[in-house]
Amino acid sequence: MNRFLGFVKKEFLHIFRDYRTLIILFGIPAAQILIFGYVVSTDIKKAGVAILDLSGDETTQKLSDKICSSDFFHLTENLLTYNDIDRVLKKGKTKAVIVFGENFGRNLVSEGKARMSIIADGSEPNAATLVTNYITAIVTGFNQDLAGVPAMNGPRIVPVVRMFYNPSLKGHFMFVPGVITLILILICALMTSVTITREKEFGTMEVLLVSPLRPLQIILGKVMPYFFLSLINVIIILLLSWLVFGLPVKGSLVLLMAESMLYILMSLSLGILISTVSKTMQQAIFISLVGMMLPTILLSGFIFPIENMPGIYRYASVIIPPRFFIVIIKSIMIKGTGFIYVWKETLVLVVMTAIFIGLSIRKFKIRLQ
Amino acid sequence: MRTILYLIRKEFIQIFRNKFIGRAVFAVPIVQLLILVPAVTFEIRNVKVAVIDRDMTSESRELISQLEGSTFFKIRFSTFSEKEANRLLNKDKCDVILQIPSGFGRELGNGKPATLLASIDAINASVAQLSWAYLNGVIRDYNVNIIAENISPGTVAQMPQIQITNRYWYNEMLNYKHYMVPGILGILVTAVGFLLAGLNLVREKEIGTIEQINVTPIRKYHFILAKMVPFLIIGLIDLAIGMLIGSLVFNLPFEGSIALLFLSAFIFMIAILGFALFISTMAGTQQQFMFIAFFCMIIFILMSGIFTPYESMPVWAQKFNNYFNPVSYLMRINRMVMLKGSTLQDISRDIYALILIAIAFTSFAVMRYKKSA
């Protein structure tokens, strides 16, 4: 045991000696939380729209003013002909062109009907849908103004909405759990796989293997410091999201920390597994960054909800561990629910950890070729 | 010139000597592109609804069946207890609770407004807003029907109305695959080039082989160039393979000029590789490099506008993208050239900016690299 403690101490010293890595290790989560708190949002603000007004009467003027004066849009250009539409959309600054046909105002008065069209840049489907939705909403409001109040009486359904968990519809509720999940797995897997392959690549693994330490002790000793560092990272992120975004942990903090420890353990054992299959650090880094970053971002439900994915992917995402942790952390942090609501996900993480450790033990070679 | 060629040859031999890396630089992007593109969509389907119908009249049932008829909502549960419904929401079994209070049908029958309560899981704010908008749409249709039933036919026609038609250019069906292929391709090319080029240089430092190069008459820029070219070529090959997959597997239309796309990708690769090498001159070990790279890459990628619209970012973030983030340019250019067929004229400003960034990053790398230990 004494021997083992000495070894752990050596590993800690290794890490603390390299202050640059240490700064980055703690700087990454902090900076990312702050940056994403302010940058990642799927709303649109001040999107560019151009207007092709073939009618040029009072009504079209009023309606375009109403659209362009809202917070969502700003006018990029007034077009003269249909041929200009392609030109402005291709430049990319304009997200949509609003077209008023000829005699718009006159038709509205005489026939009670007028047509306008929105031509949106479909190369960015998300922005395109949002832009058309917002414009449609503004025009609907305009329509109601035209119709006057009387039409709004009479039998109709008045829906009242209550936004659960996140009444002010902030983006933080989505990305804080996402960032914790993403950063923990990438950092843990990277760190462990790199430190172990480093010993292999430099040949110092041989020195460790001939020492009286058991292989299991070597691995545990290498992993232990990162376990604590990652735990500190979790605390930093939670503190930041609480202090900066006012996002408190609604449920039990103890449970959240316990689940985080489990997740860190899982990520560390994944790192060990990667290290057993890679010979060089380059290889380990390639697997844990290039191989894992995109699937984690895309398939875990961090940005893209899993329910929207095509059938096979919903089932296939089961092999992506972060997917479960995101559910756990959201339930505890935001919904404030207890263990009974997340026991299934927890069990999955436990099983995964066991599998990763089991595979690593089978693959770990005591002898070097 | 010949020195550089020899150096480049050496780099190629070194890269492909590691069998794993030699294969992975091509295999990983291909596999990820094939697997990830179909998975990613913002298109929302199957919003799970739990209904609490306290009214049980023909009116409430009609509304529910209208909701069921839309592809957007799936009615999963029907209960009378609010507690039960909240539990379902907590468990993620449903996304929306629709409460129809008793007296709903009576009010409507009396020609009065009737209320309806919707509780939406808003952790994902944008999905919640969309669900709310769709729910409103269903209710609006329902309202229009009952208004039409109640008012004599003549009056409806007299209300002035503006009708809107939507068209989506360049991507009529709003196919997300067309949107994601250029983006994911950009990320993969970035990740492969950025990581490998940087790691390569730091590895020479860590192992000490850089000393052997430092004592030769090789010039500083020779060395940096030789580290750059192999990954530039690998990146462009990855891009070509990715585009082939895009058009064969995902039917990606290719509107613009291929030469223009490769020209921009070429400049982009110089920028990103220059940046990677610049960082690697500062890092002492591969571990340090990897951390800085991880940090920068995540920021570059998530801020680039691949997942969230560029317009929705605050002004400082847009400025950051304009001055420092080559990935944001690549994202924009890729989509504009591939999907819209934008010409050199349309994207000239982006190209100039990218050239400036490329020159700046590369010269930083050359300046920062010191031959003395």
Please give a structural write-up.
The complex is a heterodimer of chains A (369) and B (373). With 369 residues, chain A is an alpha/beta fold. In chain A, 65% of the residues lie in helices and 11% in strands. In chain A, strand 1 (47-53), helix 3 (58-68) and strand 2 form a beta-alpha-beta unit. In chain A, helix 7 (172-202) runs antiparallel to helix 9 and helix 10 packs parallel to helix 14. Chain A is elongated, with a radius of gyration of 28 Å. Chain B is an alpha/beta fold and 373 residues long. Chain B folds into two domains: 2-40 and 175-368, no CATH class; 47-158, abc type-2 transporter like fold, CATH 3.40.1710. Chain B has 15 helices and five strands. Chain B has helices at 2-17, 19-39, 58-69, 82-90, 104-109, 125-150, 153-158, 176-207, 210-214, 220-249, 258-282, 286-303, 315-324, 326-340, 348-368, and strands spanning 47-53, 73-79, 96-100, 113-121, 161-169. In chain B, helix 8 runs antiparallel to helix 14 and helix 10 (220-249) crosses helix 11. The mean pLDDT of chain B is 85. The chains are: A alpha/beta (369), B alpha/beta (373). The interface between A and B is large, with 121 and 123 residues. Strand 4 of chain A pairs parallel with strand 5 of chain B.
Which terms would index this structure?
heterodimer; A: 369 residues; alpha/beta; abc type-2 transporter like fold; 2 domains; 14 helices; 5 strands; 65% helix; B: 373 residues; four-stranded mixed β-sheet
β-strand number of chain A: 5
Assembly type: heterodimer
Global outline of chain B: elongated
Which H/E pattern describes the elements of chain A? HHEHEHEHEHEHHHHHHHH
| Overall pLDDT of chain A | 83
Beta-strand content of chain B:
5-15%
The largest sheet of chain B, given as strand count, sense and whether it forms a barrel, is: 4 strands, mixed
What is the SS-derived class of chain B? alpha/beta
**Can you count the helices of chain A?**
14
Number of domains of chain B: 2
